[in-house]
Design a protein that fits this description.
- The structure is a single chain.
- This protein is an alpha+beta fold and about 475 residues long.
- Helix content is about 35%, strand content about 20%.
- It has 16 helices and 15 strands.
Length: about 475
């Protein structure tokens, strides 16, 4: 076993590429295989959308959950570092990415530097050519894609060009790649963002390409805002309570029972009200799903795989929950936003029959582009913005009552789009007092996309080949 602090020099070659697409990298000896996976994603320009596996000296290493039938004898890539495996100079092994397209990478240990290195580790030393784009159809599809882009008369030229725009197969930008690798290093800046902890943080794996862009622009102000965000702090209250108490999901929906939900929410930054009084009329909340502050957190925790359980079963914290609780506040906020933006059906915030079962295809993309087109810190009135989303996002009302369709769609935008983003710290709201016969209410009339919100939202909305942009 090499001494602690040693550095492996590894050459990565994309098998079958001609001319050869290759990289030469330095990685620490205590690099886990899951971190090596992210290093390979970074240097080759992949976007971490698909499954992967290592084959080393006849043994497969990956996430055992991906071994569906349990017949491959997969070892957990989280549990093994390079220095744990019998690797010596000229040892070769294999990394497979995207079992559909079948990208095979040959890795050769060229040298083991026993005296370590003072420069940034991991680091890319050299390489040639751009890696192929995702989902191009394997090597055969990639070379057909390149032929099509070179020939305007090719029957698929316009289709391929529209898919990702111009593509330069000769491009190799060492500086850009090493900027991305910085976030997997032990540098102070990387630690403040939390990405260096990729050895254990399953919750950043899916989002890593976007996270590395996001982490580059973090500043002290953003870190303080994230730390103070009420939603993040309330999520920790929820997770801590479930960790310390036995809570059984309800038999009907799997939601939090009323008593524990009330006890949890009492610890929130702004505890919600569980009964409503209007004159002599008093109404008690009968389900935790009726309190948005509680229900929103439970949805994020379940969809984000921080909590497991469900109907009549104990709500338990997952390994990802422990990692989430130990992560820096900014990473916690970004993860909650990413889960909401990419994984959750936003109609849970507007559970009315007339809204249908799903929002229009790519509606979140329409919303994101509309938000990012706003001027920096410029205020936008809710109603005109909602009209823009209704038109461009092709929102429709499916209810039998059509008289108030427009008003209902505006309310959908408020409840399903804007209010959750306010809770997540992406938007700030302005309210005006409205007088009614039953009393005075606060009406949500305008909002701003803050500098903090723009920075957290932009990597989710703007696509790109992040390793070679």
């Amino acid at each position: 076993m090499p001494p602690y602090g040693s550095v492996y020099q590894i050459k990565i070659s994309l098998r079958g590429s001609d001319p050869l697409i290759w990289r030469q990298v330095l990685v620490p000896a205590d690099c886990s295989l899951v971190r090596l996976h992210l290093i390979l994603q970074t240097v080759m320009g992949w976007e971490n959308y698909h499954l992967h596996a290592f084959k080393i000296l006849g043994q497969e290493y990956s996430d055992p959950q991906d071994d569906e039938w349990g017949d491959r004898g997969t070892r957990d890539e989280h549990d093994f570092c390079l220095m744990d495996i019998d690797l010596v100079p000229v040892t070769t092994f294999e990394y497979i990415y995207d079992f559909g397209d079948g990208w095979l990478h040959d890795l050769e240990v060229e040298k083991i530097h026993s005296d370590g290195c003072d420069a940034q580790i991991p680091r890319c030393l050299a390489g040639e050519l751009s890696g192929p784009p995702e989902d191009v159809g394997g090597l055969g599809g990639y070379y057909e894609y390149l032929r099509a882009l070179k020939n305007r008369r090719h029957p698929e030229y316009k289709e391929w060009l529209a898919w990702r725009g111009p593509f330069d197969p000769l491009k190799f930008d060492l500086d850009v790649i090493n900027k991305r690798l910085f976030w997997l290093s032990e540098a102070t800046g990387a630690k403040s963002a939390g990405l260096h902890a990729a050895d254990v943080l399953d919750l950043i794996q899916v989002y890593y390409p976007s996270l590395s862009r996001w982490a580059e622009g973090l500043d002290g102000e953003f870190l303080l805002i994230a730390e103070a965000l009420s939603l993040r702090r309330d999520m920790l209250v929820l997770l801590t309570y479930l960790q310390e108490n036995k809570v059984i999901g309800t038999q009907s929906t799997g939601n939090l029972p009323l008593k524990p939900a009330q006890e949890i929410s009492a610890g929130f930054v702004d505890p919600p009200i569980w009964k409503f009084e209007l004159g002599n009329y008093v109404s008690h909340v009968r389900s935790s799903a009726d309190i948005w502050a509680v229900y929103f957190l439970q949805v994020l925790a379940e969809v984000g795989e921080l909590v497991a359980g469900g109907l009549g079963r104990r709500l338990r914290l997952t390994r990802a929950a422990a990692e989430f609780m130990a992560a820096p506040p900014a990473l916690q906020v970004w993860y909650l936003l990413a889960v909401w933006w990419t994984q959750v059906n936003w109609l849970i915030a507007f559970p009315y029959e007339g809204a249908g079962d799903q929002l229009p295809f790519q509606f979140n993309k329409v919303v994101g582009e509309a938000l990012l087109s706003l001027p920096a810190d410029g205020e936008r009135l809710v109603a005109p913005f909602a009209d823009q989303l209704i038109e461009h996002g092709e929102l429709k009302w499916y209810g039998s009552q059509q008289a108030n369709t427009h008003e209902e769609l505006i309310r959908l935008v408020k409840d399903g789009v804007l209010n959750p983003l306010i809770d997540l710290g992406i938007l700030t709201a302005r309210y005006e007092s409205q007088a009614h016969v039953w009393g005075e209410t606060k009406e949500f009339v305008a909002f701003r996309l803050t500098r903090f919100g723009r920075h957290f939202l932009e990597p989710l909305v703007i696509p790109g080949r992040w390793a070679g942009e």
